[in-house]
Fold this protein.
Amino acid sequence: MLVNWLRENKVAASILTVLRLYIGYSWITAGYHKLAGGFDASGFLKGVIANPVKGPDGSIVYGWYVDFLKHFALPNVDIFNTLVPVGEFLVGLGLILGCLTTAAMFFGLVMNFAFFLAGTVSHIPTDLFIGAIILFSGYNAGRIGLDRWVIPFIRRAAFKGNGAVKHNA
């Protein structure tokens, strides 16, 4: 019942727009500051590798993630120095404009989980909660935004001549 309300109700679309703008602003400003001020993830990555998340018994909780950071992310830090700020900026832009909202939120959640696995907490649990609501809301999260026109266009282009796809606006 709640899922249907989130996915179809116009009042829900208004509430989702406020949530989308709030979290979008957070993403776009984080990305912009990294793009404008220069960004180097190597210090962060070295810190996470040196101080991984540990359980109550002192053992490393996400050893597979530490291995990923040590053996892939750090040696390829230049890729991450571009992906992180551009990704943050694009997620924020997509959320603010309401354009490809569910895709933007999906990638925002992927980045949030990556930061969370690294041991960064701050506002991430709140972002994960709001992000999950936006993601589960689907099209309705971007109804008051560019998705109102972009999603039907994509559906028409992708399923040209196929009468099986219907859009409920």
